[in-house]
Amino acid sequence: MKITDDLWDTPPSVDAALEKAAEFLPKGYRIAIFVEKGGYAVELEFPDGRSEPMDGDDGIRSDIMEGVRVAHGITEEKWV
Predict the structure, then answer these.
(1) d(CA 23, CA 3)
(2) Most C-beta atoms within 10 A of its C-beta, which of 8, 17, 22, 76?
(3) Can you give the residue range of the structural domain that contains 33?
(4) What is the pTM of this model?
(5) 60-72 and 14-24 helices cross at what angle (nearest 10)?
(6) Measured in Å, how far apart are the chain's first and last C-alpha atoms?
(7) Domains in the chain: how many in total?
(8) 3-state class of 27 per DSSP?
(9) Which residues contact 46 (CB under 8 A, 6 or more apart)?
(10) What is the pLDDT along the chain (80 residues), one digit of tens a residue?
(11) Burial of 13 by CB count in 10 Å (0-12 exposed, 13-18 middle, 19+ buried)?
């Protein structure tokens, strides 16, 4: 099994997505989750201090996994 196989599927729960992120996120990267009245945001923080919002198109679990994939340079185009 390649690392992309492990990272492509959306885990069944937020806890499982966080555990997978903690296992596979490259050193120096962080995923931040912000919650406020009316919504939330998931951002990938890069080692150089930049951050980007993540949108996995299917809720917070997929947003978290999108951050891990972006950190690894995995895009949908590379997967197909």
Answers:
(1) 11
(2) 17
(3) 3-79
(4) 0.86
(5) 10
(6) 16
(7) 1
(8) coil
(9) 28, 29, 52, 71
(10) 456 667 778 889 999 999 999 999 999 999 999 999 999 999 999 999 999 999 988 899 999 999 999 999 986 655 44
(11) exposed
- Which ranges in the chain belong to alpha helices (H)? 3-8, 14-24, 60-72, 76-79
What does the DSSP 8-state code read for residue 38?
T
Query: Exposed, middle or buried: residue 69 (CB in 10 Å: 0-12, 13-18, 19+)?
Result: buried
User: Phi and psi for 39 in degrees, rounded to 5?
Assistant: 175, -175
Q: Is 66 helix (H, G, I), strand (E, B) or coil?
A: helix
Burial of 43 (0-12, 13-18, 19+ CB in 10 A): middle
Can you give the pLDDT at residue 79?
46
